[in-house]
Design brief:
The protein has helices at residues 2-21, 23-27, 30-57. With 59 residues, it is mainly α.
């Protein structure tokens, strides 16, 4: 779980940097921008679940 959490966090950071700090993102079709932003949201939600599982496992 720890490895999965770390790897997912790295992917979230990379996608977030692309969306919020890369001018190429703005050149993509709007529907693709929406999908990528939704993907980032889902990934963050999943990371939250992993956070809760790790917390529960270390009680």
């Amino acid at each position: 779980m720890k490895t999965e959490h770390r790897e997912l966090k790295e992917k979230i950071d990379a996608l977030g940097a692309f969306i919020f700090s890369n001018s190429i993102f703005e050149t993509l079709p709007k529907d693709e921008q929406v999908r990528m932003t939704q993907q980032l949201g889902f990934m963050n939600s999943y990371l939250g679940v992993l956070d809760m599982r790790l917390f529960a496992a270390h009680k």
